[in-house]
Each structure stands twice: as structure tokens, then as C-alpha cells.
């Protein structure tokens, strides 16, 4: 079985036409961007507010790492 067709630990991604990992790879997203997509997709089906807080945290990391004045 293809790795993109199976999921370990639930099925919160399998209902989507494109899984977050496939989208991230195809669009060359970095770690923070990929995690923002992942948590945005799954928050309603998995960890609710905790996943939304993770989105915010990764957005803050992205701002700090990519846009802070050096």
C-alpha cells in the first residue's frame, strides 16, 4: 500500500482529496508552513482549539524566523 494511502493514528486526513503532506511537498512549503496547513485541515476532526493554537504558534514562528529584522 502506498504511504499516502494509509494513515497511522486515525483517519482525519484520509477524507480529503489531497492530504496536507502531498500539498506541502508539491508546493515546497517549509516546516512552519506545512504545519499550519496540517493543523488547519485537521482541527475540526482531531484536537479542536489545541490545533488552532498550534496554527497561531507556527505562524508566530514563521514571522520570527522569516520576517524578523536581523
Helical percentage: 40-55%
**Span between N and C termini?**
46 Å
**What string, H for helix and E for strand, traces the elements in order?**
HHH
Radius of gyration: 13 Å
Give the overall shape: flat
Structural class: mainly alpha
Count of DSSP E strands? Answer: 0
Keywords:
single chain, 70 residues, 3 helices
Describe this structure in words.
It is built from 3 helices and no strands. By secondary structure, it is mostly helical. It has one domain. α1 (20-26) packs antiparallel against α2 and α2 (31-42) packs antiparallel against α3 (49-67). The mean pLDDT is 87.
Question: How is this structure best summarized?
Answer:
With 70 residues, the protein is an all-alpha fold.
Describe how the helices and strands are arranged.
Elements: H1 20-26, H2 31-42, H3 49-67
Helix pairs in contact: 1-2, 2-3
Amino acid at each position: 500500500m502506498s504511504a499516502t494511502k494509509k494513515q497511522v493514528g486515525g483517519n482525519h486526513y484520509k477524507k480529503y482529496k489531497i492530504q496536507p503532506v502531498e500539498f506541502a511537498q508539491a508546493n515546497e512549503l517549509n516546516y512552519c508552513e506545512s504545519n499550519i496547513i496540517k493543523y488547519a485541515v485537521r482541527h475540526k476532526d482531531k484536537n479542536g482549539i489545541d490545533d488552532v493554537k498550534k496554527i497561531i504558534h507556527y505562524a508566530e514562528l514563521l514571522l520570527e524566523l522569516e520576517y524578523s529584522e536581523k
